[in-house]
Design brief:
Number of strands: 0
Helix content: 55-70%
Largest sheet: none
Strand content: under 5%
Low-confidence stretches: 1-54, 567-576, 660-664
């Protein structure tokens, strides 16, 4: 490590004079011998507590009397472990031996002892409240060492490393800024890495700019740290620039460098660029490792290109690399999302044959795939296999199985699964409870849904906005608006903020009960609360207005959200209600069909036809009921040719009537 650690102007002159000094190397032991000395010293016999301790100066003189630094370190260990020394004496000894080791270039051992010295001060600070941070106190202890032959300014770079590796990045930064000259690149890299691990990305870039201004020559480790910071910032473009800069300076990127950039590109969805870099990596002679391949496979799976992911898998095996649990879990997840559960199951078997223990994530992916594609029995078999192979089913496993059961209408079995969870010692979370509540709500069993909610709160699991929205929606669908509004009020009491789903359920319920004024009040309340409406809110309002014969207001609301104003307004000066959507939402096919059907029921066939034309121009396809309503309207006015054209368009769009129903 370069001896470049000079203190600022306030540092005593003697420190400035000693810069660059250090003990001569001589016949130095290997780094490992220091630890063997430490180990042997711990087994030495302790003197009795009454034995007098020699003065600190005498101990240090003896310490410096050893020709070999490793012997001095072993003596230090015996003294520290065998004598009752006060804090000043102990820290004085630490400072002395740290300077000796740094001067002898035994930096790993020096860092180890510096961390111990920091720990001494941390423990003393907890007891005595020293009033200064540990970085400053340790800095002053090393600075106060008074022996011109043994003093090494590089000890301050070691201190920066020790503090950074201990997670004390603020203290390490303070020490760094006390040094008038830049410490060795290893110390700079340690501080940058410490800031990265602490999530202080902004401070990392500021410090890097300061280091460059003070003459830093970045190493490969420096660039790896900076590229990693780009990854965590979600900025792969900057990472690529740094990679080019690194190569331009003659530094060879390692597999870690390339893998970090590849991961960053894949995480930002830039898979083609990641694949190009992957190929360049191989062409430059840097072989990808299992982490590089796994990142690329994950990227291919995100593009729904499991074929490409499997090709990469075979290439990896051809390179002599064995997959790990994450690699195979990634592939299994991609296959299951495409419904290729059989292939995913074979992959799991291959994993076991290769003596790679599948993790819980791999099993959960397979269970989810089987549950979604109707293979519940296979999903439960996998749960049993999971338990036998030592990967204990977790809350995600049970939540996935619960979802499969409830989606299949097997809610009672879901209730039994909840009991099994508790017996296995797996605590159900909000997601599991909400899944079961949703299952009962879909069956219209609001009483049992409320009972599950009571169990949930009784076990200390607080219902969230999804829980309340499910219960509100269930009661709105059964027309129990008083109960729904009571649950809505309970949300406020519990401090749960309603979202757009909650409001939309209530608006839909009031609209279907003919309570337009209350629906509009809730719509306004939602806007005032800063909750943005969505297209489902728009559909609910249009459908509700059309059901009440207010197709004109529905049409005005629809046009406003298309950015078209026909001179009318959703507001009616003679009424207490008004309808607006904030922010405007582009109508979807459901909004079109609700308006077209409402206009048809109000005998406004011409306007219904106009909105149908707009819908088709937008690339949307109506359902069979909408086509049937329009054809009936044309037939009523004896526009048989128009009706036949509508029928032809319906068949061309692939909309087929079921047993002729909906037509005629």
């Amino acid at each position: 490590m370069a001896a470049a650690a000079l203190a600022k102007a306030e540092t005593p002159r003697r420190l400035l004079r000693r810069t660059g000094r250090g003990a001569a190397g001589g016949n130095l032991p290997s780094p490992g011998s220091f630890f063997s000395y430490c180990s042997s010293s711990r087994s030495s016999t302790r003197p009795s507590p009454s034995a007098p301790s020699p003065p600190l100066s005498g101990i240090i003189a003896t310490l410096f009397g050893y020709r070999r630094p490793s012997q001095a370190a072993a003596f230090f260990r015996r003294v520290i472990s065998g004598r009752r020394l006060g804090l000043p004496a102990r820290t004085g000894l630490y400072s002395a031996v740290i300077h000796v080791l740094v001067g002898a270039r035994l930096h790993a051992q020096a860092i180890c002892l510096t961390k111990e010295l920091v720990q001494e001060y941390l423990e003393a600070g907890r007891r005595d409240q020293l009033g200064r941070h540990v970085g400053q106190i340790t800095f002053e202890a090393l600075q106060g060492f008074d022996d011109s032959d043994k003093f090494s300014a590089a000890a301050f770079g070691v201190l920066v490393i020790a503090l950074s590796q201990s997670g004390l990045v603020d203290e390490a930064s303070w020490v760094f800024h006390q040094l008038s000259d830049l410490p060795a690149v290893h110390a700079c890299n340690a501080l940058l890495d410490g800031l990265l691990k602490a999530g202080r990305i902004g401070s990392l870039w500021e410090l890097h700019a300061d280091m460059l201004g003070r003459g830093l020559e970045p190493s490969s480790v420096t660039y790896n740290t900076l590229i990693n910071a780009c990854r965590w910032q979600g900025d792969p473009s900057r990472a690529l620039q740094l990679l080019d800069e690194m190569v331009g300076k003659g530094l060879e990127p390692t597999v870690v460098t390339y893998t970090t950039v590849v991961c960053g590109l894949c995480e930002e969805g830039r898979i083609p660029e990641a694949m190009d870099l992957f190929r360049n990596m191989r062409r430059s002679g840097v072989l990808p490792n299992v982490y590089t391949y796994t990142a690329m496979m994950d990227g291919q799976c995100k593009l729904a290109d499991t074929r490409g992911a499997l090709v990469l898998y075979e290439t990896m095996l051809g390179d002599g690399l064995l997959p790990n649990a994450v690699t195979l879990s990634t592939l299994a997840n991609g296959l299951c999302k495409e419904g290729r559960t059989r292939e995913a199951r074979e992959l799991l078997c291959n994993m076991i044959r290769r003596h790679v223990e599948p993790n819980a994530f791999a099993y959960n992916c397979l269970i989810d795939g089987h549950a979604k594609f109707g293979g519940l029995s296979e999903a439960f078999k996998l749960q049993s296999l999971m338990a036998r192979t030592g990967a204990a089913p977790d809350v995600v496993t049970y939540g996935t199985l619960m979802k499969g059961l409830c989606d299949a209408g097997m809610v009672q079995q879901g209730r039994e699964l909840l009991q099994q969870m508790r017996q296995e010692g797996v605590a159900p979370n909000t997601i599991v409870y909400n899944t079961l509540i949703e299952g009962y709500c879909k069956l219209g069993d609001t009483e049992e849904a409320a009972h599950v909610c009571s169990e949930m709160t009784g076990e200390g699991v607080e219902p969230n906005v999804v829980t309340f929205s499910l219960l509100i929606d269930a009661h709105c669908k059964t027309g129990e608006m008083d109960t729904a509004m009571g649950i809505f009020s309970e949300m406020a009491v519990r401090g749960v903020v309603p979202d757009v789903v909650t409001y939309t359920c209530l608006i839909d319920g009031h609209m279907k009960k003919g309570n337009l004024e209350e629906a509009c009040r809730l719509n306004k309340e939602m806007a005032d609360a800063g909750e943005a409406a969505n297209v489902f809110t728009l559909c609910t309002l249009i459908d509700g207005l059309c059901r009440q014969g207010r197709s004109r207001e529905a049409m005005q609301l629809f046009l406003q959200n298309m950015g078209v104003h026909d001179g009318g307004s959703g507001r009616n000066p003679g009424r207490a209600w008004s309808v607006d959507i904030h922010p405007p939402c582009s109508p979807n096919s459901i909004a079109y069909m609700a308006l077209i059907y409402g206009l048809y029921r109000d005998a406004q066939h011409f306007k219904a036809g106009r909105f149908f034309a707009l819908m088709r121009e937008s690339g949307m396809v109506p359902d069979v009921s909408t086509y049937a309503a329009l054809m009936r309207g044309q037939c009523q006015f004896r526009y048989l040719l128009n009706a036949m054209m509508l029928h032809a368009d319906m068949l061309k769009a692939g909309v087929m009537p079921v047993d002729g129903r909906g037509i005629g």
